[in-house]
Amino acid sequence: MKADPPSGGIFAAPRQVLTFSVGPEQYGVDILRVQEIRGWSPVTKIPKLPPQVLGVLNLRGSIVPILDLRVKFNLASAEFTPLTVIIVLSVDSPDGPREFGLVVDAVKDVVDIEPDHLKQTPNLGGRSPPFIQGLAALGERMLILLNVDELINRDMEQVPLDDIANVA
Predict the structure, then answer these.
(1) For residues 49 and 160, is the Cβ–Cβ distance under 8 A?
(2) E strands of the chain, at which residues?
(3) Which of 60, 79, 104, 131 has CB atoms 3.0–4.6 Å from 150's, for a disulfide?
(4) Model confidence over 5-63: pLDDT tens digits?
(5) How many CB atoms lie within 10 A of CB 62?
């Protein structure tokens, strides 16, 4: 018997998700948060940032912090290749909407996910990261859906964003 997804939130309606890979897993973010997908380009390194924050890029006059999801997810480092991309996302931060970039191994595609394919993150003894919004079963593959606000804001709490903008 199939369990019904919880009501409300991400489970209430169909949604479109940009899928990408980091290491062996596939992840997804709400397509409406995606501002741009660009090939890897070197970043300006800023001293004293957390290790997952590679630095910043100047995108059309806006200074955008860039996070490496391999580092964030404690995966082995990998060489940046022509498939490595930066996904620029709009994030709701305590200071209002901001753009952040995520370095991922490869972008896959945009998929439509129906509510009956969405699953809650299983209880893993309180060890499920709060930035995992849920899971989606797409045929034989499992997609980890990320809450980009949680993912980025927790890392950036300790980084004064005004200092980043002033340095770059």
Answers:
(1) no
(2) 15-22, 25-30, 34-39, 53-59, 62-68, 85-93, 96-104, 106-113, 118-119, 132-138, 141-146
(3) 131
(4) 444 455 567 889 999 999 999 999 999 999 999 999 999 999 988 889 999 999 988 99
(5) 13
Q: 62 Cβ partners below 8 Å, 6+ apart? A: 99
- C-alpha span between 147 and 9 (Å, rounded): 11
Structure tokens at 6: 């919880």
**Which residues have C-beta within 8 Å of that of residue 57, sequence separation ≥ 6?**
41, 43, 44, 63, 64, 66, 86, 101
Give the C-alpha separation, 150 to 148, whole Å: 5
Q: Closest Cα partner for 109 from 19, 26, 30?
A: 19
pTM of the model: 0.83
3-state DSSP call for residue 19? strand
